[in-house]
Amino acid sequence: MSRNMKLVKDTDKTQQKKTEITDKQAEEAFRTILSWIGEDPNREGLLETPRRVVKAFKEYFKGYHQDAKTDLSKTFGDVEGYDDMVVEKNITLESHCEHHMAPIIGVAHVAYIPNKKVVGLSKLARTVDIFSKRLQTQERLTMQIAKTLMSSLEAKGVAVTIDAAHQCMTMRGIKKEKATTVTNYFLGSFREDLSFQNRYLRYIAK
Length: 206
Ligand SMILES: [Zn+2]
What we know:
GTP Cyclohydrolase I, domain 2; 2 domains; 5-stranded mixed beta sheet
């Protein structure tokens, strides 16, 4: 019986290993792509390229290993009664679209209305970063940032706007190089009270 249990355990381990792709395997995949586009992955200029691309991809997609809720858990209780909106605008945003893995480059504007707790300003930008460093659609990215801020800060309201250019639209396909996409997501007071929403929109328009 104990032998059986061990067998089962060992099988589990092998299955786990199979899903874990090593850096070497990822580099090999990029070598394949280099050949496929018509290059020689063995020429001098390209020898180190797969390794560099893997390193870059780790940066582009590091958000899969980060949890915004952990960062947002460090809040300050003493805000001396500040209860109006906090707006952080023009946060640089770099993400990748999940349909073409092409860059999405733009800015995010984030606002929240504190409810007893405030958070360090850098944490708002960090939340944008963590969700950006994944394969995304702009719509989902906007909502993920808003919902995470709302629940982690137990805020009275949250507003998130993203204005970004999608290189899958500007560099290829329909090739509209000046097109940018704007998405908004409002929660709490920003959704229910248009005076809050309008003030927010005026601040970010400046
Ligand atoms: Zn795309």
